[in-house]
Each structure stands twice: as C-alpha cells, then as structure tokens.
Amino acid sequence: MNKFERIQAALRGETVDRTPGSVWYHLSELDQDPRALAERMVADNEKYDLDFIKLMPFGLYSVHDYGARLTFYCRKGEAPVIDDFGIHQPEDWGSLRVLNAEFGTLGKTLEIARYVAKLTRGKTPFVQTLFSPFTSARKLAGERVFTDMKEHPDLLKKALEVFTAAAIDFARANIEAGVSGFFFATQCATTDLMTVEEYAEFGRPYDLEILRSVADKTFFNILHLHGQNCMFEELQDYPVQCLNWHDRSTLPSLREAKGKTNKCLLGGISERPRKDTAGRSIPSFFNTASAAEIEAQVHDAIGQAGGRGIIIGPGCVADPFVPEENIFAFRRALDTYAEKRKTP
C-alpha cells in the first residue's frame, strides 16, 4: 500500500498492510518562514517514513491579524506568546471583520500548504491545522471570553460568526492548495472550561458549519479534542473521519472509544509532560521512554483498537525535543506489529 491507500483504508476501518502513523511537533525556529517550515516538515516526514503530515503553523496564527500583539522568539521550543490580547471590552467583539485568506498571517499559513503540495508531489497526505471559532475567540480575548459568553452572548456570537466565515474561506483556499483535509482543533470542548450546554450553544453550531463546508471536498478530517475531561461523547458525531484526543491521560481509552464510535481513531502515544512525586513537571513518556517501551505502547494502542480503524500518533502535539531515536522507534514499532501479526 502507498501512504494514501493506507490512510484511506484505516479511515474506512479496513485491513491495512501495516497500521499507519505519524508524529508532529512545533518548529518554532522556522514557523515564520512558510517555505523553510514546509521543507523541514516534508524532510522529517521522509526521514522517518511517516504516513501523513500535519501542518504545523504557530498556534496563534488565527488571531494574529485580529489585533493580538505577539512576541516571536524564533527559537526551538519557544513558541510565540501573546503580549496583549485583541479584545479588552465587550464592544471590541463588534469590530472584527472577516479576513482574506490570501493576506497577512493567514496568507503566510496558506503558503505552507502550497509549498508542501509542491514538495510532496501528490505522494503524501497532509492536513492543515484549523482552530474552532470559540478556540480562536479565547486566544484573542483570554479568559474574559467566558465572562462575555455569559454577560454579552450576542456580541460574542457575532464574533464567532466572523471567525466561522474566515475559517470557511481559509479552508476553501487550503483545499485549492491541495490539502487532504483538516486537523480541526477545539481547545474548549472540555468540562474543565465549559458546560456541555454552553458548548452546544457557543461551540457546536459554528464548528459544524465549518466542517460541513469541507466534508464533501476532503477525505481526511480529524477532530482534535484538546484537554482533559473532553466532550468526546457529545462531539463524536461531528462530520469527520477521525478522532484525536489525549487518550493516554484522559477518558475514553482507545478501547473504550472503539465501543462508542465507528470513526477511525488517532492516538496511542503519551506526549503530555508528567508530574513527579513532588509535583514538578517532567518530560513526557515519548521523550524519555526506551525503544522497547515505545514499541510496547504502540503495540498496545493497535491492540486496543483491534488492529483496524486506528492511526497511531500523539494525543496532541509532541515535544519538539523528542529524541529522533524515539521517533525511529515509533516507526519501527508499526512494522514489528505487522510482522508479529503475520507470524503463524
């Protein structure tokens, strides 16, 4: 099977020659240069022989041109940060206008897809990162978005309509550029931040409008449910082919998810930082595990899914400092599981 065939078979829940997989991480030292970023992502994908590319624009790209003031470090492991939000009072929501996907930071992000399309020459599926409207609203306003949601819902909904229209236009341009689909990330569909009822009102309608606009034009759309205590059951019916969440650190497990949905699952690798006994943050399992431990986790993930309808990858973005030998171990584990399956 080639990479397209393998991914498409996994999405349909069919038998594959080996389970597909990929790993993605931010390249903050390159992500302000679309061509350099595209070249590196494609080169890394070829070096590790992974099955698809998740494009990695910086995480604030959807709000930069809406007035968020950022600091760019352009150093490995140091992502851009917000120095000043673009929303300071409720009336600011009304100033937002739909931005053209061809210009500014959106335009630079679109160029990443165009470069990757040229470099992969139709041989590797790749998906563009797309943030849900409420996620973008939170990035632009910070935590005040939750206050405005309660006290000024109509103003916030007008802004969510703007983010939705801009995302649809941006998605259209990326489809024309050649993407296979979208990694649609919602970072607020968690009961740690919102109630199910709140997300049904302020998240779901806008998410669905975007996803429905691309549903018949792309084959590889992934819903990423970010954070602990995610609303998996409430959003599993979204019109996507694949579901991704922090399956190693929050429910459901891959095995439990298989009992809830027929959609393809993407996950299995523990990428989140951990806490030691003193409560201090330590690197993730993926950063520190041995090759044998990584192989065991990959094999366990495939087994939980019953060997079908599964793509192996991190539950979210991997640490950019993951040793390359661990990514090679990840990739080898996909082969060793397939070899083990063939052994009588």
Write the layout of secondary structure elements.
Blueprint: H1 3-11, H2 34-48, E1 53-54, E2 69-71, E3 81-84, H3 104-120, E4 126-131, H4 133-141, H5 144-151, H6 153-177, E5 181-186, H7 196-202, H8 204-214, E6 222-225, H9 232-235, E7 242-245, H10 254-258, E8 264-269, E9 274-275, E10 281-282, H11 285-288, H12 291-304, E11 310-314, H13 324-342
Parallel strand pairs: 1-4, 4-5, 5-6, 6-7, 7-8, 8-11
Antiparallel strand pairs: 2-3, 9-10
Helix pairs in contact: 2-3, 3-6, 4-6, 5-6, 6-8, 12-13
How would you sum up this structure, described in words?
Helix 4 (133-141) crosses helix 6, helix 6 (153-177) runs parallel beside helix 8 and helix 12 (291-304) packs across helix 13. The chain is 43% helix and 13% strand. The mean pLDDT is 97. It is built from 13 helices and eleven strands. The strands form three sheets. The protein has a seven-stranded parallel beta sheet with strand order 1-4-5-6-7-8-11. The protein is an alpha/beta fold and 344 residues long. The chain has helices at 3-11, 34-48, 104-120, 133-141, 144-151, 153-177, 196-202, 204-214, 232-235, 254-258, 285-288, 291-304, 324-342, and strands spanning 53-54, 69-71, 81-84, 126-131, 181-186, 222-225, 242-245, 264-269, 274-275, 281-282, 310-314. The relative contact order is 0.13.
